[in-house]
Amino acid sequence: MVGLPMVENCLSGYNSCMFAYGQTGSGKTHTMLGEIEALEVKPTPNRGMTPRIFELLFARIRAEEESRRDERLMYNCKCSFLEIYNEQITDLLDPSSTNLMLREDMKKGVYVENLSEVEVHTVRDILQLLTQGASNRKMAATNMNRESSRSHSVFTCVIESRWEKDTVTNFRFARLNLVDLAGSERQNTSGAEGERLKEAANINKSLSTLGHVIMVLVDVANGKSRQHLSQVLV
């Protein structure tokens, strides 16, 4: 129900994004990934949003390419997987690539410099990337969650399509972002100290900022000044 309109939007050339947000231990990572270990052999009802969304995406791609063969419609998908930990960006598909820089370009928009992108053709390709990246993610035990995600992760798929019509070649691009945010927690209940305390402070700070930005975007959508948004982002 949630993933279907996101897939349809991306195939129509519109970017889509999904956040899993909430307190630590509330089920964000399970909702986004679920049980993915044996999915290559047999689908499980406990698989998460991400594998389900890509099952739908590749099914729709195959159907569209078949129905529009006269237009020579072809899709190309490239994926990346990053982690934001203590305000530093790491490539989860190449963990040696750390402290990556966020850049902005007139054509590309906002992007992460030197982040690896892998071309994918099937759900199996996606599952391999998810398994590889999830194993490199920062996890630790706290009093509130024995397997707490200590970082934010962003799995991105760039969906490109190309077709010919009336002797004109057309291109379309869209970006699908699936975000598993680190869980918020109170210091006095999590028992965080030392490195865990530093992590918790950065997690809570970033979640608070995200919430503020979303509130301002809602205000802008309702007609308030864009200058206010710029002040918040600065």
Features:
single chain; 234 residues; alpha+beta; six-stranded mixed beta sheet; two-stranded antiparallel sheet; 7 helices; 10 strands; Kinesin-like protein KIN-12D; microtubule; motor protein; Kinesin_motor_dom_sf; ATP-binding
Write a structural description:
With 234 residues, the protein is an alpha+beta fold. Helix content is 36%, strand content 27%. The chain has seven helices and ten strands. Strands 1, 2, 3, 6, 9 and 10 form a six-stranded mixed sheet that branches. α1 packs parallel to α3 and α6 runs antiparallel to α7. The longest helix has 27 residues. The chain starts with a helix and ends with a helix. About 3% of the residues have low confidence. Belongs to the TRAFAC class myosin-kinesin ATPase superfamily. Kinesin family. KIN-12 subfamily. This is Kinesin-like protein KIN-12D. Keywords: ATP-binding, Coiled coil, Microtubule, Motor protein, Nucleotide-binding. One of its GO terms (cellular component) is microtubule. InterPro entries: KIF15/KIN-12 (IPR044986), Kinesin_motor_CS (IPR019821), Kinesin_motor_dom (IPR001752), Kinesin_motor_dom_sf (IPR036961), P-loop_NTPase (IPR027417).
